[in-house]
Specification:
With 247 residues, this protein is of the alpha/beta class. It has nine helices and seven strands.
Length: 247
């Protein structure tokens, strides 16, 4: 049986983030989530989750800002939490062809999707090393390996994630910490399912299993990776995309 740990999920109030948070809660872990500063619906979200049997603690931060991430880490440590499991899940898109892409949109995506791994992991990893146990899972994307029209910024940021994973995994493996990448394909989240019907048909047509993935399927994979049973798995990039891209 996996020992009860404390998990922190960035972007934990989103579609995939919430599903991961719920499953880790079901596994008996204490679950913390991050949200953007000045988020208007945090209390409502927490209350809704609690009414359904899930008690989470939420912390505000901008994952693209290293100073704010350090301050958030200081606060959760002051609250008595020591993060054992870090899920770097927060991410954004600012799509557009490269010729029309502004530097602002390039920087926003790289800072939120890639710089955030440094910003969130740096202030938390020392306590994992001190305790001799830790799990870090970085959420990438199918488009990191196959590319996607109009997503040079997003694909570049998500491809960089696995380079981070492989290098950090080598540095901390002997200290009881594993670092892995999970690369989902298109999932049945609100963001994806809200696209026009003709676009959705094109997406599904490109997935050999003939459907979108379920956030629960990705969360179940993550639950294994962060368990005691996943201790021999590190530096991996696990694709879960319905066969859309095989490598």
């Amino acid at each position: 049986m996996t020992q009860q740990r404390t998990a922190l999920i960035t972007g934990g109030m989103g579609g995939l983030g919430t599903t991961i948070a719920r499953l880790l809660h079901n596994e008996g872990h204490t679950v913390l989530v991050t949200h953007t500063p000045n988020h208007q619906h945090v209390d409502t979200w927490l209350a809704q989750q609690k009414s359904e049997g899930y008690t989470f603690t939420a912390y505000a931060t901008d994952v693209a800002d290293d100073t704010l991430c350090q301050a958030m880490a200081d606060k959760l440590h002051a609250d008595g939490h020591h993060v054992d499991i870090l899920i770097n899940n927060a991410g954004i898109t600012r799509d557009g062809t490269f010729r029309k892409m502004s530097k602002l949109n390039w920087d926003a995506v790289l800072r939120t999707n890639l710089d955030s791994l440094y910003n969130m992991t740096k202030p938390l990893i020392d306590s994992m090393l001190e305790r001799g146990w830790g799990r870090i899972v970085n959420i990438s994307s199918v488009n990191a390996s196959k590319g996607q029209f109009g997503q040079t910024n997003y694909s570049a940021s998500k491809a960089g994630i696995h380079g981070f994973t492989k290098s950090l995994a080598q540095e901390v493996a002997r200290k009881g910490i594993t670092v892995n990448t999970v690369s989902p394909g298109y999932l049945a989240t609100e963001m994806v399912t809200s696209v026009p019907e003709n676009v959705m048909e094109q997406i599904v047509a490109g997935i050999p299993v003939g459907r979108l993935g379920k956030p629960e399927e990705v969360a179940a994979l993550i639950a294994f990776i962060v368990s005691d049973a996943g201790a021999f798995m590190t530096g991996s990039n696990v694709a879960i995309n319905g066969g859309q891209h095989m490598y």
